[in-house]
Structures are given as structure tokens and as C-alpha cells.
Hints:
- The chain has a single domain, classed as NAD(P)-binding Rossmann-like Domain (Rossmann fold), CATH 3.40.50.720.
- The longest helix has 17 residues, at 82-98.
- An 8-stranded parallel beta sheet has the order 3-2-1-4-5-6-10-12, sandwiched between helices. The protein has a two-stranded parallel ribbon with strand order 7-9.
- Mean pLDDT is 95; it is low at 291-296.
- Helix content is 37%, strand content 17%.
- β5 (103-108), α5 and β6 form a beta-alpha-beta unit.
- The protein is of the alpha/beta class and 296 residues long.
- α4 (82-98) packs parallel to α5 and α8 (208-219) packs across α11 (276-285).
Amino acid sequence: MFAVMGVTGQVGRAVANALIDRGRDVRVIVRSESKAGQWTAHGAEFAVAAIENPEAMVEALAGAEGAFVMLPPIFDPSPGFPEAKAMIAALRAALNRATPSKVVVLSTIDAAALQPNLLNQLGLMEAAFADLPMPVAFLRAAWFMENAAADEAAARDTGVVTSYLQPLDKAFPMVATDDVGRAAAELLLENWRGHRVVEVEGPARVSPNDLAAAFSKALERTVSIKVAQRDGWEATFRAQGMTNPTPRVQMVDGFNEGWIEFSDGGAKARRGRISINQAIGALVANTPPPARSPEA
């Protein structure tokens, strides 16, 4: 039996679906029983638990052949990441007590970057989990293609998308969340010793111009893209409701300046199947993307 966190989100859902499709027994971990129905209908069992409830998390993870765990995303953290540190400590304690046979941890591209940025939260998690006694795989994923959901309304309504990733012709490492979930499921079915880092990105890197072209194709209208001027980022993020936008600004700087990157430029990364055209097409149609990639 495999225990899977995050099934109400995109990656956790993809992990659980991939394991169920392979005929494996799955225990989904949900915050309330009301979230379990769709999973029990597909033969999964469920456990009601949250990181804030360590006893419930231990019970949810105990006896698992493998566990997929993740840190709930915190996009507007307090300075010093106290929210992430508290959840990391709680999850580490639960894993130590439950001792699943192996663990796959959702992490991020360049989690070990020393420069301050939003992704440091996942680096803190990797460091905290370094002494866990069971085999652990840190799955470092590229920028999610589905982040473009924030741009869909502008693309549809105005035909213009604003990009913080720049320059517009630079190809960035991106990946569809379904591909991340499949990679995690495949890791759970593998056997290894000790701790390892596995990187995953899509079949091809994606520029902001490519993103605009994908929206143009999916929406059947011309979509252009423009640069979000760097000196206006903080004000924009604060206007969107953020109270501490600095880590987010630093993260985007890291992608643009190239110091957030995979080892060896992604040469050793596992490759997903879903292209940016398929991911954006699925986003626009509000349907899951296909598992195979007949066209780039």
C-alpha cells in the first residue's frame, strides 16, 4: 500500500491516479472525509490527517510500502519561513515515527541554491529530511506549466499576457504536473538505498514566446506577450495581496539570471511527455492532458 499526500492538488492527484492505474493499493491522505469520496470510488482507502495533527499523520503513513509527501505551498511566507519550518519539523517527526519503507518527497529545481529566494523552503525540507532512516528520493521538479493558469483570463479576454520570466525568447525548464506525478509514482515503484535527488522537466524547454503561441493555438486567437518591468514587480505583488513579496521576486530573478537551474543544465533530468501546447490546451479546455505526446 502506498500513502499519498496532496491528492486535492495537481501533483498528488496525479501520483495517486498513476498508482491506481498500475493496480497498486493506495491510501490517500485528506484533510477531511468529504474529500475522500472520489478516491474510494476508485478503490483507494483514505486517512484523514494534516501536518498540524502529528498523531493522525503517523497513523496515515504507518505501514506504507512507500509514501509520497509534500510541503503545502506557501507563496507569501513570513520572513525566515517560520510557517514552512514548523510544517517541515512536524512532517519529519511523523515520518520518523511511521517509518514507511521508502519516501518520495516533492521538491523543486535547485532546492539547494544558496541565494535567498522562495524555493529555499524546499531546501530547508531536504536538509531536515537528510537523516531519515529509510530510502528517500527528493523529486526536484521544474517550473510547473500549469502556473500559466494565472494568465488564462488575460490571454482570453485581452490577447496580451504579461511575463515575469524574461527575456521573452529564453527557454526555461518547465514540466506539466501530470508528468511530475507520474515520475513520483515510478519512483515509488523502484527500489534504492539511501537518499537520492531526481530531477524532472518536460520534453522541451519553454520560452514566454512559446507560452503565448500555445495560448494562441488553444484559444484560436492571437495572443502576444509583454515584459513585466522589473522595477514594478514588488508593487504589483503587494497589490495582489502579498505582504512579503521579496522571496518571490528573488525566485524569478533566479530563473531569469540562470542561477536557478538543474545540475548539468538538465542533462540528467527525467523527461516528461506533455508539451506546452498540450498543457495549455488542457488548461483552456479544463480537461486532463493526454499521457502521450504526438506533437511538440
